[in-house]
Amino acid sequence: MSSRPELQAPPEIFYDDTEARKYTSSSRIVEIQAKLSERAVELLALPDDGVPRLLLDIGCGSGLSGETLTENGHQWIGLDISQSMLDIALEREVEGDLILGDMGQGLGLRPGVIDGAISISAIQWLCNADKSSHEPRLRLKAFFGSLYKCLARGARAAFQVYPENLAQRELILSYAMRAGFAGGVVVDFPHSTKKRKEYIVLTCGPPSISTAVPKGKGEEGESCSDDESSGDEENQTVSISDRHRPRKKQKTNKKGKGREWILRKKEQMRRKGNTVPPDTKYTGRKRKARF
Amino acid sequence: MTLLTHNMLSSNIKGVTNGFPLHIEAEKVVEKQVEINHDFRRNIFPKIKWKAFVDASRILGYVELPEEAPEPSVLESDHEFLGKFHHALLELHIEEGALFCPETERKFPINKGIPNMLLRYNLQEVFAFLILL
Q1: Which 3 state secondary structure label does DSSP give A111?
Q2: Which of B32, B16, B4 is nearest to B105 (CA)?
Q3: Methyltransferase type domain: which residues (chain A) (predicted)?
């Protein structure tokens, strides 16, 4: 069975009592959620004047992401479709107000009142048709349309998403643009398979300098090429003769692989976002013979 | 659910032009202590629709707020008013009850403080949806 929860059941059924319980008992999930929401708040780029804002947490679930908002001193309203997850949120006594609702049916908020919106791993659910009455395109349209209405001018929205493929990301983005948003995708750690995280950052209002999409973490200017283009290049260069190439070409002489090789490998790991000790004069230095 | 959220919510039924404010039917109201934050109230005050806010607070049995919206300058000086505003905005919670769409009378029940805004696609709602398309 696929590991993607979107393919297993609709959200209000997938996030049942046992699944919701994981969000309090698993410290790993708690830590990841806190990190994701911390980054999402950073991407909102709220003015740094200490004034609490009214934020929206779409797919707030058990309120883990909302706790980060509370820690940052903001007032928030959380929306989720799963009663079980909201029950957990009540149990945790979160500060924000909770609403049981479906984002695909529109948000139902007054125009221009919300100062910013975050969402952690929820938007990709919109692309599913779990009921016969569900039509992903209409649900995306209803969601982004109502979001655009309720956000104040210049307010931002930062959504962490796990798109299934490129087409799905394009679909989500195109509906956001159609609703009037400016913005794009921020990818953190594009070289890592595990730590790679995508955020859709949208700004309410016409494009300007302030709406420029911020840069992702662990990404360099030259290396931020899209996976599709680099993948295509690889496909072109692969030939049949490559199959008979010996597995390991790495030459190791008596001296070992050398300082240069170590530095290169360390750089590679750094790009993936791993924690790597700094390069010093001791890096790759040979031990004394009497050791 | 606080009155702040009530003041932001409107009915999202398709075809409803004026879904604000939702009528309140409160069965159980609780009070929770919340720390006062002056900056937040200054930020939120211009966004509050005063009439709906006062009417909602009356329904919950809190009658201290003035009928007319005060000038924003009052926020700086009148501490007594600030306390009342804060109390009504964030400390009064509707625990059990229901909200009603002002146009269609559609009922949104509130359980354990969480309003259920899910629209079940019943015949009437689907019909309104199709007309819009």
Answers
A1: coil
A2: B16
A3: 56-131
What pTM does this model have?
0.77
Q: What does the alpha-carbon distance between residue A215 and residue B31 come to, in Å, rounded to a whole number?
A: 44
Mutate to test the interface with A, among B9, B20, B41 (most CBs of A within 10 A): B9
Side chain identity, residue A197:
K
Per-residue tokens: B5: 């959220």
Domain boundaries, chain A: 5-211, 255-284
Rounded to the nearest 5°, which phi and psi values hold at B29?
A: -120, 135
pLDDT tens digit at each of 291 positions of chain A: 457 787 777 787 888 888 888 777 788 888 888 889 999 998 888 887 778 889 999 998 888 888 889 988 889 999 998 888 898 898 888 888 999 988 888 888 888 889 999 999 888 888 877 776 678 888 898 899 999 989 988 889 999 988 888 888 889 999 999 888 888 888 888 888 778 888 999 988 765 555 567 777 776 543 433 433 333 333 344 444 555 556 665 566 666 778 888 999 999 999 888 889 999 988 888 888 876
β-pair partners for A75: A54
Q: How far is CA A130 from CA A7, A69, A123, A144, B125, in A?
A: 9, 31, 14, 19, 18
Annotation: CATH topology of A5-211 = Rossmann fold (3.40.50)
Min Cα separation A15/chain B (Å)? 16
3-state secondary structure of B109: strand
Query: Where are the domains positioned within chain B?
Result: 3-132
Backbone angles phi, psi at A129, to 5 degrees: -110, 95
Rounded CA-CA distance B46/A225 in Å is 45
Distance CA A72, CA A40 (A): 12
Residue with tokens 């509050």: B48
> E strand or H helix at B58, and its extent?
helix B50-59
ipTM comes to 0.84
A97–B1: do the CB atoms touch at under 8 Å? yes
Interface of B with A (CB under 8 A): 1-2, 4-5, 7-12, 14, 19-20, 37, 39-40, 42-44, 47, 49, 90, 112-119, 121, 126
Helix, strand or coil, per DSSP, at residue A45: coil
Q: Which amino acid is at A125?
A: W
Q: Could you tell me which CATH class the domain B3-132 is placed in?
A: mainly beta
Structure tokens, A18: 């046992």
Smallest CA–CA distance, residue A213 to chain B, in Å, is 26
